[in-house]
Amino acid sequence: MQTQAIRIHRHGDPEVMQLETVPLAAPAPGQVLLRQLAIGVNFIDTYHRSGLYPLPLPAGLGLEACAVVEAIGAGVREFRPGDRVAYAGGATGAYAQHRIMPEDRLVHVPIGIPDEIAAGTLLRGMTAQYLLKRTFPVQRGQTILVHAAAGGVGQILCQWARALGATVIGTAGSDAKQVLAGTWCDHVLDYRNTDWPGQARALSAGHGVAVVYDGVGAATFHGSLDCLAPRGMLVSFGNASGAVPAFDPLLLSQKGSLFFTRPTLGHYTASRQELVDTAGDYFHSIEHGFVQPVVQQRFALQDVAAAHRALESRQTTGSTILLPAAA
């Protein structure tokens, strides 16, 4: 069969992405053929497209989608045609009408979770899960800081952290985003204000915050170190403003025996059980009202360049999805 998919033949700006007709084989043993219902757009997709995280070319893009199983290969036991599933991570190629995926990277989507939420927030939700519960396990009574609190990961992190009993300080880079972040943060700071680290310290009784979750990168790195409590942790999980600058590890000692880590979702969902548990915990958080994720932007699959431009210009809030035309 054939399907429509976004492909790149060189790295570059959003215009390098092209909608192409590509062949699709029948699923091999252990594989599943999916008809995609909605596709998540994540900042890492822009890194793959631009070459910051280069891919072997030509390549597909996208890591996340909600889909219906159309056919299964030999030996597939966990899924049947008609099942609604989702995935986040693994090989790129989600920007497509149909896709072949290995069985062990799929998860069932509970009945109460809409297609768009599963497609547009699973990667962000699983990211929030491992950050909050495993990279730095947040405890009731702690004060934490989350950068880009109005963004897709930020809104989930902040809501979930409050449900865990933490006091949440969020940051945002525009007046509108600060208002939005105030919906799920106890306090909101403008990281364009050079004194935001001091403001964060004041909000934590002068002691500093226990952890900073930072998906912004270069623009917030030094300030993040300055607002941490002694033995606090800076968790750098993205670099929307550019890569964190090189630094001497002695800096961590000088600022309070701090910890710095750069985790990735793949290392926290490497096994089948880890993947199922991480996704399951996120879906559970939605079903019980701990997290109320929002899909804010929707683009047709063929308008993917506009989606990337909106994301890179920081015009977006919440999550962004692509909607493939019916095949």
From TrEMBL:
Lineage of source species: Bacteria, Pseudomonadati, Pseudomonadota, Betaproteobacteria, Neisseriales
PANTHER family named in the record: QUINONE OXIDOREDUCTASE PIG3-RELATED (PTHR48106), QUINONE OXIDOREDUCTASE-RELATED (PTHR48106:SF13)
SMART domains: PKS_ER (SM00829)
Keyword set includes Lipid metabolism: no
Protein name: Quinone oxidoreductase
Gene3D superfamilies tied to this protein: Medium-chain alcohol dehydrogenases, catalytic domain (3.90.180.10), NAD(P)-binding Rossmann-like Domain (3.40.50.720)
GO terms of molecular function: mRNA 3'-UTR AU-rich region binding; NADPH binding; quinone reductase (NADPH) activity; zinc ion binding
Annotated ranges, domain Enoyl reductase (ER): 12-322
Cellular component, GO annotation: cytosol
Keyword hit for NADP: yes
Keywords: NADP, Oxidoreductase
